Amino acid sequence: MRPGFFLAEALRSIRANAAISIAATVTVLIAVFILGAFIPSFLYVQNTVDQQKDKVDINVFIADSATVQQVNGLQRNIDGLREQGLVRESTYVSKDDALADLRERLRDPSVLEELPSNPLPASFNVLPADPGQSQQIVVALQGHPAVDADLGISFASDTADRLLTVARVIQYAGGALILVLLVASILLIGNTIRLSFVARRREVEVMKLVGATNWFIRWPFVIEGILFGLAGATVAVAMLFGIKVLVVDSWAADADSALTRNDAGTIGFLALAAILVAAGAIVGALGSGITLRRFLRV
Amino acid sequence: MVIFDGVRKVYGQDSIGLDRLSLSIEHGEFVFLVGPSGSGKSTFIRLLIKEIEADEGTITVGGRNLNSMRRGRVPYLRRSIGCVFQDYKLLPGRTVHDNVAYALQVTGETPRGIRRKVPEILSLVGLSEMAQRLPDELSGGEQQRVSVARAFVNHPRLLIADEPTGNLDPDTSIGIMQLLYRINRTGTTVIMATHDREMVDKMQMRVVALDHGRLVRDQRRASYSRADVGAARTPPAG
What we know:
The complex is a heterodimer.
Chain A: H1 2-16, H2 18-54, E1 58-62, H3 68-83, E2 87-93, H4 95-105, E3 122-128, H5 134-141, E4 153-155, H6 157-199, H7 201-209, H8 214-253, H9 258-261, H10 269-294
Helix pairs in contact in A: 1-8, 2-6, 2-8, 2-10, 6-8, 6-10, 8-10
Chain B: E1 2-11, E2 15-25, E3 30-34, H1 41-48, E4 56-61, E5 64-65, H2 74-79, E6 81-85, H3 96-105, H4 111-124, H5 140-152, E7 158-162, H6 170-185, E8 189-193, H7 197-203, E9 206-211, E10 214-219
Parallel strand pairs in B: 3-8, 3-9, 6-7, 7-8
Antiparallel strand pairs in B: 1-2, 1-4, 4-5, 9-10
Helix pairs in contact in B: 3-4, 3-5, 5-6
């Protein structure tokens, strides 16, 4: 009987303060909408960066003069690094493989026919487990007798660093933005509940006089906050769904757009909707709960 | 039922609410609390329901020491005390029925119990017909009856009325007074703060007079003022 009673009390209050209730709902709507637009974009960028990070590889060029034993020794060193968890994967690329690879990339492979011999070195293509540790791998393999003295070890240190910076900035800035939005919604709902509470201050006094416990008085307000959160989130989800169908889906259908060229995935709409509605409810409950803590000291 | 022992309450610098008041009220008594405005009547009542706390002395209500009572227990204290106020203190957006029902819902009463008890008490105060009206559709006297019904629906052992007839005309006041008297007859202790001289004189009940927070008279079967010489003075308890 209690939950029904509290829900009825909350609805009574929402009806009594229609204008304030609409304001609170719109507040949540805006916050959840921004959050809902941000989460998939954030995940998309994050996934793209992750994919790019996978492409940061290290090329260890092998001297033509290196003996088989030396190359095997180098292979063992790399395997050792893999056992330490630094290297994710390594592939041996022979001189022929390198030439075949180059031939594929050239518009006019006939120029290669002019070459008296294969000038390309063999190499190990090494994928670091964490691109941030590329430098360590390079230091560990440098100076090995099998490594070509002139070509040495090449890796895209700039690309790796830049990607890592971008990823980190996105992580922190995104996290901060989401945090700010959530805190703002909590405070705004809290303020709405405070207004609703102050508007009924006299009523609350009377409730206390007839022996209502603080929680008996609080529950309807908390439920009111949760309802604001749920209502705002639901409308925001509906709006986001509209945008997804009208805008994003048509981008995705366009074969030439960045969305299709890059196969980085993002969150499914149902999961996003569930997260947003839950966030709305939690924000509503927190907003009213925190506000009401300060009131009701008899 | 109620024991005040050397109770002192000071508001701010030199505004005295109660000054070392000692007083004892037995179970089932009917007591008028009289005195000019600012004499301490309201302070007395607010102390009883622990709306404010005493600076000195101890207050006991129904065997419970209010000084040592934890905040969380205050709602339970108030459920055992019915309160009627000069300004009725009804919940404005709720019907007569819902106002009375709220006092039961607070205690966790079942919907079934509410369906039984509310009509019962509304018929006791003569408002059965008004159950679905809102407070502002009622006359002052009717609103005060709702307030009495709400105060008594839990059958508290103590009922406090702060100037319950203060806003009412004499005829209506008599109706409220009769209601409080009937409630007292059921064994409920009634404490009523009032300015209504005529009413106090007519009832001839125990009169406790306060002035500047001090007890100036405590007399059984008494009138509003000291005039009637025959009555014996009861010594203050404590």
